[in-house]
């Protein structure tokens, strides 16, 4: 089970994160027993985290163990330091107790990783929308120009007639087979 979720144990006691299971850039599975011992974890395997608190005093492991006992499991949201950074970010974990083994299996990921897929979809949608607006605007402009050119030419011709200039003939692009061409 440990190797399936995380990968084989390294000589330093750590486990590589299984890249075949994608739960975000910094996401991974870990396994707890009821006492809060880490039975499987990328770097803390064997440690007891039952009394571990976040910077704001929240007992996140206790919350995971509590919610894992619910029929559908449960989510825990808490602040946790980003890997390789001193700043904290919100993390989300889903925990569910395995009835056969009695273990709590947890899948955790930073919310920024969790939401990265939606961000890509939103960006793609926005780029598509902008592209459609540009193309649509160009089509409307071209249609409006095709429609307005004969009207502008007719207005120019009527203006010449109003000034008394009856010598000029209609401009060639007024020769359309519609009402403007008839005028």
Task: Give structural notes.
The protein has 183 residues and is of the alpha+beta class. It folds into two domains: 2-114, 2-Layer Sandwich (Beta-Lactamase), CATH 3.30.450.20; 118-182. The protein has five helices and five strands; from the N terminus they run αββαβββααα. The protein has helices at 2-5, 60-68, 111-114, 116-162, 179-182; strands spanning 28-32, 38-40, 74-81, 88-97, 104-110. A five-stranded antiparallel β-sheet has the order 2-1-5-4-3. The longest helix has 47 residues, at 116-162. It is rod-shaped and about 100 Å long. The model has no long low-confidence stretch (mean pLDDT 83).
Question: Features of this protein?
Answer:
183 residues, rod-shaped, five-stranded antiparallel beta sheet, 5 helices, alpha+beta
């Amino acid at each position: 089970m440990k190797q399936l979720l995380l990968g084989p144990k390294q000589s330093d006691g750590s486990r590589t994160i299984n890249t075949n299971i994608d739960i975000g850039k910094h996401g991974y599975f870990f396994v707890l027993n009821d006492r809060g011992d880490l039975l499987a974890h990328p770097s803390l395997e064997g440690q007891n985290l039952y009394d571990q608190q976040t910077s704001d005093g929240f007992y996140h492991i206790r919350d995971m163990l509590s919610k894992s006992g619910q029929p559908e499991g449960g989510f825990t949201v808490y602040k946790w330091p980003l890997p390789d950074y001193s700043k904290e970010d919100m993390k989300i974990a889903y925990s569910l107790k395995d009835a056969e083994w009695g273990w709590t299996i947890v899948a955790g990921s930073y919310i920024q990783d969790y939401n990265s897929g939606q961000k890509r979809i939103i960006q793609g949608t926005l780029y598509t929308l902008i592209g459609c607006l540009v193309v649509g605007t160009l089509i409307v402009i071209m249609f409006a120009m095709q429609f307005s050119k004969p009207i502008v030419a007719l207005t120019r011709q009527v203006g010449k007639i109003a000034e008394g200039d009856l010598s000029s003939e209609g401009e060639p692009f007024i020769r359309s087979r519609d009402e403007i061409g008839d005028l």
